Amino acid sequence: MLGRTLLAVTALAATFAVPAALPDADAAVRVRDTVALSNDDNGHTVSVHSGDRIDVHLVAVRTDSEKWSWDVPAASSPEVLHRDEGHTTPDGDAVARFTATGDGTSSITAHRHCRVTRPGHLCSHLVRTWKVTVNVS
Questions:
Q1: Which of 15, 38, 84, 121 can bridge 65 by disulfide, Cβ–Cβ 3.0-4.6 Å?
Q2: Which pTM does this prediction carry?
């Protein structure tokens, strides 16, 4: 009798046992991450995984007599970072979305140009570059 009871208890315990390691939900389908980049990220390096998204929003700089407007951000290696969308706004901001499509390194760059907002003022011909390096693995 004791043997059958132990056998029944052992079978019952095996039925309710928790596996030592639960399967990783990300192993089958990894949820995409999104990295947001802004003016403050100039000069930084970020690391992402293939399939992740990168959103860039650059804000124009304004003074009483000039506005420094952005052009559309671009990737140096489109085979690593694909630009899904990109545009500028009437107020001089720039917006772009990239998807990491392959392993490697790419930079995202944009340029800021001066626009006169007050008659009689002259802008510098200086062009300022914004750049972020992106490592994809």
A1: 121
A2: 0.75
